[in-house]
Every structure is written in structure tokens, then in C-alpha cells.
Amino acid sequence: MMAAVTSAPARLRTPRAVRAVPLSAARLLRLELRRSVMPWILPLIAALFWFDSYRPSTGTAALYGLRTFWNMGQGHTIIDFGPFVAGAAAWMGSRDGRRDMADLVTATAWPRWTVQLATWAATAVWAVAAYLVFVAVMFAVYARQGVAGTPPWWWVAAGAAAVAAFSAAGFAVGAYWPSRFAAPVAAFGGFLAMALSSRTGFSHTTGWAQILPTNSNGNFDGSAQANAGIFYPWTPDLPVARIMFLAGIAVAALGLTGLPARSGGRRLRCAAAVVALAGVASAWTAVDLASTARLTTHGMVIPALHDAANDVPIRYTPACGRAGTVPVCVNPAYRSWLPDLTAALAPMLAETAGLPGAPARAAQFAAPYPSNNGALGEPVTLGGQPLVLRLSLGLLNMPGSCRLCVGPAVQKGFAGQIKLLFAHAFVDAGARPGSPAQQAVQAALEDTAGVPFADQTMLLTMTGTPWWGQPALLALTNGSESGNGPGPLAGPVYAAARRFAALTPAARHAWLSAHLAALRAGQLTLKELP
Amino acid sequence: MNVEISDVTRRFGRTQAVAGVSLETGPGVFGLLGPNGAGKTTLLRMMATVIPPSSGRVRLLGRDPGEYGPRREIRRRLGYLPQSLGYYPGFTVAEFVEYFALLKEMPPAQVPQAVAAAIERVDLGGRARAKLRTLSGGMLRRVGIAQAIVNEPDLLLLDEPTSGLDPEQRVAFRALLRDLGERATVIVSTHLVEDVGAACSDVALMEAGKIVFHGTPDELIAHGEGTGAAGDAPLERGYSAVLAAARSARAAA
Amino acid sequence: MTTAGLNRAVAESTPPPAAAAWRHRLAAGCQLARLYLVSRRVPTALALLAGLGSLLWAALHWHWTIVGGAAVRQFIPLTIETGAAAVIAVTTYGPFGEPERAAGRWLPWLRLSAAVALIAIAFGALAAGATPGGLPGGTLALLRNLGGMAGIGLLAAAALGGAFAWTGPMAFLLITEGALAHRATTPWVWPTRLPSDRGGAICACLVIAAGLLLTTVRGPRESGRESGPAS
Fold first, then answer.
1. Fewer Cβ atoms within 10 Å of its own Cβ: the N or the C terminal residue of chain C?
2. What angle do CA B38, B40, B44 make, to 5 degrees?
3. Which chain B residue has the Cα nearest residue C222?
4. Taking CB atoms and an 8 Å limit, are A87 and C167 in contact across chains?
5. What is the pTM of this model?
6. How many structural domains comprise chain C?
């Protein structure tokens, strides 16, 4: 029974001058947040996020550049969220149409477009907040695991922008097509977009394709991976361009939802058209900017967006140890590998102590840019006065798990590689395999430092060893003696190496003292080795 | 006058749903009768500013709904219950009414009280927190009425408001209409003549897009006396007689 | 409306000849099937499946592949197959609720027939789209992948309701992508296995059998009167 009519309350009316639009909007948003469908889909996204973004990253070394290569660099956090967010947003966008609510909502004072924007906003808030929370939890776990370096915050922001863009695009699909198929079509479109993005990103390393969310070229590979967040700040140029691009897509999609006749008055629909065009302009500008991106000594730079302040190296207090009497210092992000490094360097430094080319200390330096043109820089070099052994450890697989390797990088392999690279730098072969005499001395030094000749071939092909160690590339060189590798174990280079290694340490030391300069200049032949 | 409609038509493609209707009404309860397909819902949708007329002039609450500003003001003071009420199953009763209170730009500070009052007036106070998907059809209809009256509208448009209500609720609903009609213009579109007879001071009968009768319920009853028209009650006979006359006139034309 | 002529009409009816009765039953059956399919928006689904077939043709004709090995090259065709499975899953949603469930014995057969027919049509559309050649694994893999994913969609419909059943195949696609990238080869992620692999085929068949069984017997979860994700 309905309440007695005499108990009806007095009319409620206040002057229009007191407008409380923001408060009404906030309450409307609160209603939509409470009743959004997005929270229902988050458990599924969480499970997929753990499986696809977090779990694969735990197999990499404890550096942010490596840990986030798959999930941030190749956009897997976006792949985990985007299509499902698009589908759920399409469901919400089609709500009025599916529920026969269009007339009822149209007959209220708020323009329909504004009401739709409130519905979308709630959807986007859930999606973006969940994304940020999931990434924050992942980074918190990384921190507990001792992952070193600085998190790629700009890439996190780009991911959040991508999630918002997917939600807007999906919402527009649902608003225009209030059908049961809107959600799966929007989700499918999201997956297809990411697949095509991966396809383009893997085959286009420059130009406009840099704008694509799954394109990791120049940002998360090679030297960039090693240095960003450790020696230099993460360069924000490209993520800023991507945020512009994705925000433009989101704005354009939302503007499109305001175009139909029922969305509101003519002025409002004109405003919606302007908004849509502004979004397109933003996205277009971002693509143009990305086309100007180039790989520099500080990462991927877009001149129009670049701030020189981001080129300033990160100040740090090095972590130091000793390899024998020689101090060895590394970036604190590599602190956990200092014992492995000093253990590997100690026999080589002991063998070369007192010689003209012996380093006074060893220190880690940033890996050289650019690095995605197939030519790796030299991980170990000797230079400066007094001589410093310069280590670009970022180019090497550090001991431990290594998702991108065939198997984990073991300490023995790492130690052998360090010894190889030291010996190569010591004989000053540079960016070449070296003369046969240099190769023989290099092999002998490795052998005396604990790397038998039979194991040395494998070291030549390890990840991080520059091209002079790659047999395939060696096969391409054209006949000059210095272009060839050491050859087979039974060949003349290793025969000379065995003879040299068989000398007493004092004899080797004395010979090197007398002949090191000529050896380094490439003036000696195999016959001139003892 | 809260409603001034002058020679309004509305076409959907080749179909003329409303064919030259003129109507003026002020505060009170106004009944809109007619068979299915007569154009009642289309007329009501035009008054609810959901669709514009194809031709003619409409003024609501002294304003022209064709302009954005006046239309917005009308909608703030409008309550509308469509024939087919869509709803979001996940919303509670209170949330659904609050949703429309906010969309009608009610002062936010007054929304909670207004929502509670509207829900109480339709006797759903005990179900304020129930999800809509758990309600019966009649309860859903009452929720629809609640959202229509939450802003104390000056113009209340109700399309088949009593469908699904039991007889006791229909009696109470008619009392509610009379109360609302003391301050506002209430237009009730229905094909249940007893609802019109009990609550309305003024009645129009539509047939084939036109108004074929406009007067008081007593005048409608008078049309049916002595004609032998079909119907179990005087109003029904008056209704049938007017319709029959209108159809004959149309056939002759 | 009166009852004046009703009794006379009943009294005058006589049983039709057997052949005519059979024709009437056949016509009624066809009409029932047509109305069922229309209520599930199958015509729109067919258009979408045709569109996906065209998309597959374009992908193969213009070599839309992701470089990085045979496994990763599957990803775009797999995405298209997943789209087809999602469309099939969403057609299970019925708008009628309890009156339909209480109406008689034909509903389970209608559900089963519709699901099987849609899977067959989807396979045909995608197989036609694969005519440029180069579909990883060929039509055998297509049949296995599509059937298995449709089965996942049907299971998702039973759990979440027809409207949200698309999340099942989409989630499986993401799991498959991860498995392909990390070279996992469990038969439960059958797209990672060779087309002739028996384990993968068995797992896919089990999933589709389970999906068809649940869909036939229980139908999709009703969202109208139960708590769930549908809004």
C-alpha cells in the first residue's frame, strides 16, 4: 500500500544560483563506480597479469631494464589489460541501448553525452587504477627480490594511457553498437591491434613505428636495457610521445560518442566533434614526433621533446671490492655480482701485474650506444692514465637466471667470458679478432687463468662477446689474416698458445714486458712467440 | 498552462503516429485514453522532449523545448515514466532513484531526502537496498514511478503507470495522482478507463493519431448513454461509443 | 473478441493424412529452429564469421606475420580463430529466461545443434579464408584450435553467462601466446603442439565435448535473476 498522501513532504526547491554540478558529478561517478562491470573482470586480468607479465620476468637478472623488457618494453602489461578492458567498456557503453534506457536518460537535464562520459569515467578509473595497482605490486615484489636500478616510471605512465585508450575505444564501440557482440568484437579488436603492433614493431626499428606500444627497439634492448635507470635516467621522450598518441586515441573515441543526434544539443555535438578532431590531431602529432626519434648516446631521443636535463648521468656511490691488489668498482645495481667479477678478474690481473698494459683499477662504465644495429660495443676495454679496465657489464649476461638465454648464465661461463674479454683488451686486438700472434697470447692468458683451450671456443659465441667472436661473422671476412678467428684447436694459433702457456710465469712475464708493445701493434707473427 | 500543444504531427517514415493534435492543460490530472497504436506513447514522448515533433508547436512549462536552454529547464522540472521501463539490474532501488535525481540536477544536498521520500511514497521503503533484479514486475513499476516523482516535477508524464500493480496498489496510486495533480500537471496515458475515471479531471481520447474526444469523464460517459456501445461500465461504453463514431467518420471520409 | 466460433472449429477438425502431418512437423521444426537462431542473433554472428574469414584471407595474402620463429608466426591467425570462438560463445546467450527453459524438450537439442552448426560454419569460413596458403599448421590445426577454443567459450558461457563467455577464449589466447613465447608444450595448450599431435587433439576434443555437454544440458548461466557480471 502506498503511503498516505497527507504525509507527503513539502516541495524541495532551492535557488538555481546555487549550482552544485561538481558534487552531482561526483555522486554520479560514485554510483557508476559502485555498479561498474569492470571489477568483475579484474580477477581474470590479475591471473593473466601474473602469468604473462610477472612470471616470465622472474627468469631474468635482477635489473629493472631486464625485468621489464618483456612486460613494459614489449607491452605485455598492456596486452594483459587492453583487450579485456575494451570488451568490458564496450559492455558498459552499450548498456543504455541494451536496457531500453535511452529514452529515460534522454529525458533528463543532463545531456546524454555527459551521462555517457560519467559511465566511461567510472570504467576507466577502475581499469587504470587496477593497472597501476598491479604494476605497483609487481615492482614491490621486485624490490623485495633486490632488483636494482630505477623503475621505468614513464613506461608505466604510457601503459596507463594505453589502458585508458582501450577503455575509450571499447566504450565507443558499445555506444554505437548496443549488441551482445560489441564486447567480443571490441576485445578481439584490441588483441588484433596489439598483434599488428608487435608485427610492425619487430620489423620496423625506426620511424613512426616507434609509437606502437609493443615496440621495444632502442628503448629496452642492448645498451638501453643496460644503462637506463642505472647510469642514465630513463629517457622520457618516446613514452611522452606514446602518451600523446594514446591520449589522442582516447579523446577521439570519446568525442565520437557525442556525435549522434540524441547525445545532446547542437552546440554540445559540435563540441564533441571538436574534441574528436583534437584527439586525432594529438595522435597525428605524436606519430610525427616519433618519426623524428633517433638512437643517441642517451637512448631514444625526440628532438622536439628532449630535455637535456635527462642526459645527466645518475650520481651514485660505487660498490667496490678487490681482485688481488687491484680495486674493482661497479655501479651499486651490480653489487650482487661483485664477488663473481673480482673472482674472475683476479687470476688475469695477477698474470699481468707489473706489465706496461696492466690496469691500476677496474671500473664499470655505461654500455656504449647505439646498440641495436647488430654491432655490440666492446664490453671490456683498457684506457686512460693511469690505465683503467673499463667494464660495460650491461652488455653481458650476469650469472644467474637469464630468460633470454638458452640456459641460465652460470658463474663458470661468466668468469670465462670476463677472462676472454680482458685478455682480448690486454693484447689490444680492439674491435677485430686480432693477429694470429695476438690470438695465441690471448688464448694462452686465458688458459693460465683457468679456462682450458677446449672451453675457449664456446666463450667466443656467448651473448655479449662482440662480433669478432662470432664464427658466422668470421666466415664473412675476406681473407685478411686479421679477419680470421683462432681456427681449430689443432691449428697453428692454438699450438703457439700451448707453447706460450707452457712457459713459467716468470718467463711469460719477461717476454711480455719486452714484446707487449709490438704485440699490441700487430707486428709480431706466430713464429716470434716463444 | 503547463502544456500547450498546437497542431503537432509526428511521422516515422511513412507512418504518421500523431496527426495534428492540439492540447492545452494546466495543473491537474489529465487522462490520455486510446487503443493500442493510437499515438498516445508518441505524444507522450514528444512532451517528454525525447523526440521532436515533425511539425506544429509545443510549449511546456511556458518554454519552447526546441531550444537547448529551455529544454534543459523543462527536463529539470519533468518526471517521465515510459511504457517500457528499462533498468540496470545491478542497481538497488535507492541507487536507481538517486541516479535520476542527480541527472535531473536536483540540489545534491537534498537528493538523499528526496530519494527516501519518493521511495516511501511508492511503499518500497523496506526494499530500498534491494537489487532491481530481485523485484517483481509491479515493484519495478513502482520504482519507475519513484524516479519520476523524486524531483517533485511540475509536469509528470506517466505511460501505463499501473501495469503490474495489484488492485490495492492501483487505488493508492490514484490517490497519489490526485495529490500530485494539486500542484503539477499530470498526464496519464493508459487504456484502463477505470484509472482515468477515478483520478482524472480531464480526459482526451486518441484514435489513429488524432484526438477524437476532449472533456471530462462525465462528458465521456454521456457519449455512451443510450448508444448500445460495448462495455461493462459507463466509462467503457462512452469510450467505445466515441471510438466507434470516430472510426465511422474516418471510414466515410 | 468472443468464444463464439471456437467450439465449432474444434468439432470440425480431423486428423490430417500422415504425409501432411509429417510436412507440418517439418515446417514447424524449421520455424522453431529459425526463431531460435534469430533470438540468438545468429545472422549477425554469421556475418561476423564471414568477416573473420575475410580478415584471415587478408592476413595470409599480405603476410601479416610476426617475425621471431614458427611459434610466434601463429599469433595473428590464432587471434582470428579466437575471435570466431568468442562470437560462437556469445550466441549462447538467450533473452527469454525461465519461460524458455520451462517450455518443453526441444531446447537442449536446439542449443546443441546451433553450437555444432556454428562451429562448422566458422571452420568453413576460416578454411575459405586460408586459401592463400601459409596458415601455420594448415586446416587440421585450424579445426583443432577453433574447436577447442569454442569449447572453452561454451564452458565460459556455462560459468559466466553467454554475454561474458567471450572472456574464456580471449584468456586462452593470452595463455597460448605466453606458452608459444616461452616454448611450453603442454597438450592442454594445444596450439603449441604440432597439428598431427595426438595429445593436443585429445585435449581439444575433451574440452569441446565438455563444452557441448554443459551447453546442451544446462545452457548458459542466466544473468537476469542471478548475481553475476552482467549489468
1. N
2. 155
3. B133
4. yes
5. 0.84
6. 1
